[in-house]
Amino acid sequence: GAQYVLLAVIDANAEDLMAPDNLLYIHQSAAAEDGTIHFRYIQRVPTEPSFVMLCGASDKDLKDAQKALNILIDKKLAAEVQAMIDSIKDLGELTLEHKDRIAEIGAAYRALYTYQKIYVDATDLLAAEARMAELRAEQIEHLKQLIASIGEVTLEDEPVIVEADSIFSWLTLEEREQVDGAALSSAKIQLSKLQKAAAAEVDALIGKIGKVGIFSGGAIAKARKAYDALTEGSKAYVSLIDALLAAEKAFKPIAIALWCVGGVVVVGGGAATAVVLTKKKRKATAPAQATKTEN
Q: What is the pTM of this model?
């Protein structure tokens, strides 16, 4: 039946252990008939070091101490959120790139209890959220225009479809209902088919290179030119790009050797414009002719 008090404090050597700025937790309970007593303490301010102390005590009213402790913790939590809100000014002019940060700050503020929010000035947060709403509305209208402009899909529509899909990806479910998502999905499927078809043509050219030799320059240059002409999305579907790079690497010493003996050679080299080298002169030309050796 004896009374005990559990204290969690920042400084165990403080002159006043129960001072509001030192106390993290306090609870009083009586021992059971078998002489045991149970406390459960979860550190509410993880950033603060704490010392847990169990003391025997006469029965006392701890309401004032507990009230002071709760206010202290409420103010600390509110101060952390206030610092987050104050950091909004450091972001400068708000853009949609800041949407995640503003959402994070908003979530932290709304996680506070009502009696904790009284210690927070949320003016800047509310203004930032209103600006984010305006920017999102503008982007939704822009997305509608992008989707409407697609029409019959061609490879030239890739930048538009990619941009539209990027905007659509971060919309909420409610926002997605405002746009024609089905049309965008259909356009993506059609574009993917075109990209794969274009990539297949390049793979076919790469496959024709075969074993690299003195006559491989034209085929290598043709495959390189076709690859470089692909859209970025189409390039992702080229399965033989490593084979093209290997062929270019293998052909380079052959090209140098042919030049040294007076041959004419087309060098792919990874550029859209190949280089024709002769023993007498060097000039740029489009890669079209097969490599030949002069006698």
A: 0.59
